[in-house]
From TrEMBL:
GO terms of molecular function: transferase activity
Lineage: Bacteria, Pseudomonadati, Pseudomonadota, Gammaproteobacteria, Lysobacterales
CDD domains in the cross-refs: GST_C_8 (cd03207), GST_N_GTT1_like (cd03046)
Annotated protein name in UniProt: Glutathione S-transferase family protein
Annotated PANTHER family: GLUTATHIONE S-TRANSFERASE GSTA, GLUTATHIONE S-TRANSFERASE-RELATED
InterPro entries registered for this protein in UniProt: Glutathione-S-Trfase_C_sf (IPR036282), Glutathione_S-Trfase (IPR040079), Glutathione_S-Trfase_N (IPR004045), Thioredoxin-like_sf (IPR036249)
Keywords for the protein's UniProt record, in alphabetical order: Transferase
Pfam families named in the record: GST_N
Record-annotated GST N-terminal domain positions: 8-87
Annotated source species: Pseudoxanthomonas winnipegensis
Amino acid sequence: MLPTITAFERSPDRGRGLARDMRVRWALEEVGQPYAVRLLSFEAMQQPAHRARHPFGQIPTYEQDGLVLFESGAIVLHIAQTHPGLLPEAPDARLRAVSWMFAALNTIEPPVFERALCVVLERETPWFAERLETLDKRVRQRLGELSLHLGQSPWLDGEFSAGDLLMLSVLLRLQGSTLLEEHPNLLDYLARGTARPAFQRAFQAQAEVFLQAQQADAQASPGPRGAA
């Protein structure tokens, strides 16, 4: 039975690959696992049927053969543990890759995501400039530490792993920002990751959902006055 994941029916990221189902899609593409997608509206995400899968009414979720998982990191870890290609075989290297998965979600993502929310939700507030400066300092610190570790290596620890997949998914939110441009090696790292065929397939699949929703909205909207 194919795994089924959930995703936004109309993604707030407007097809930019930032919604967290992208991470799961990418992992499945990396290991060559076909999957089905259940698209959900914001209203459907709050209904009991979905909250039975995800207690917090979010996406993504993952279902296969009676197993139900939520949280993108847990889902990617499950995929990596049950398919070859995203975790090294050597025990120590495998654990280091898992460490980088946690680092991406627990150390790098919180300030990056908080900054993104600030830019969207607090731009018109009187404290925006001061708060953004504070958040930029936090992001700069973490990016500097990450850049120092990466150096000129192509990936975080040996071969590409689920740790890289999650780290790159987080850095994608900073694409085009001056914060990321301060570290050329991180820009190169992100370019290598997003050039991977599996990423491209996942990105296209997620973007197609947004484009189809846009087309449906355009067809449903009333035409100009006087139109037949």
